[in-house]
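step=predict obj=Bleomycin resistance family protein n=121
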Amino acid sequence: MAFNSLIPTLEVESMDKTIAFYESFLDFKCISRDANNWAFLKKDDVEIMLSSRFYEDKFPKPVFTGGLYIYVDDIDVIWQILKDRVDICYPIENFEYGMREFAIFDNNGYRLQFGQELEPN
């Protein structure tokens, strides 16, 4: 039994605003969309689905306590592009576990972490 891929589905408050965020700041493309109910976004090998809210009465804001971790190949360039344009969760830093990374919040408050492996010394 094989697991072939994982594509997170994020509930969003505004499909239009969320698609605009991912397209304009992160260079994703909206590949498919069903009005305001669902959308499929892609950049390189990273895929994300968006959906309308399922339990808005129980959870007034989208809730996700984790983060989406995106491996990249030129983190410093991405940091320079994003650092003054988006809400920063934590700035770029080298971590003892061998990664250089930073994190931002998207327009719904979801944490997007970007990381690149450090070159061994």
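step=describe
The longest helix spans residues 15-26.
step=end
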